[in-house]
Amino acid sequence: DVQLVESGGGSVQDGGSLRLSCTASEYTVSSACMAWFRQAPGKEREGVASIDSDGSATYAESVKGRFTISRDNAKNTVYLHMNSLTSEDTALYYCVTEGFTHWGQGTQVTVS
Predict the structure, then answer these.
(1) Bridge partners, 94 (sequence order)
(2) Could you give the C-alpha distances from 17 to 67, 72, 82, in angstroms and in order?
(3) Would you say 29 and 76 are in contact if contact means Cβ atoms under 8 Å apart?
(4) What is the CA radius of gyration of the chain?
C-alpha cells in the first residue's frame, strides 16, 4: 500500500521557519506531481505548492516568495521549506500524490 509520512511540523514564532518532509513508500515521488495542501480550523483545504515530475513548481499566491517545494529522489522525499511564517500559515499540512489519490496523515504547523 502507498504510504505518505509527513514530519517537520511544530510551533514557531511569527517570522520563523520550518521544513516539512513527506517520505513515500510504494510510490515514486519523482514519477508524478506531488503537492502540499493545508487546512486551517474553520477554513477550506487549500493547495499550497506542487512539484511536477520535471521539477517545475507552482505555488499559491499566499506563499509565493516564502515557501519552496523541493524533492530528493534518492530519499523518495518531498520537502516544503517555509520561511517568514505568520499566523495565517497555521494549519494542518498534508502531502498529496497526483490526482489526490493518496494523502498523508498531516503535520501540524502553528505560528504564534
Answers:
(1) 37
(2) 9, 20, 5
(3) yes
(4) 13
Per-residue model confidence as pLDDT tens digits over 18-54: 999 999 999 999 999 999 999 999 999 999 999 999 9
Query: How far, in Å, CA of 87 to CA of 92, rounded?
Result: 13
Taking CB atoms within 8 Å and a gap of at least 24, the contacts of 83-89 are: 83/17, 84/15, 84/17, 85/12, 85/14, 85/15, 85/16, 85/17, 85/18, 85/109, 85/111, 86/14, 86/15, 86/111, 87/14, 87/111, 87/112, 88/62, 89/38, 89/63
pLDDT per residue as tens digits for the range 68-100: 999 999 999 999 999 999 999 999 999 999 999
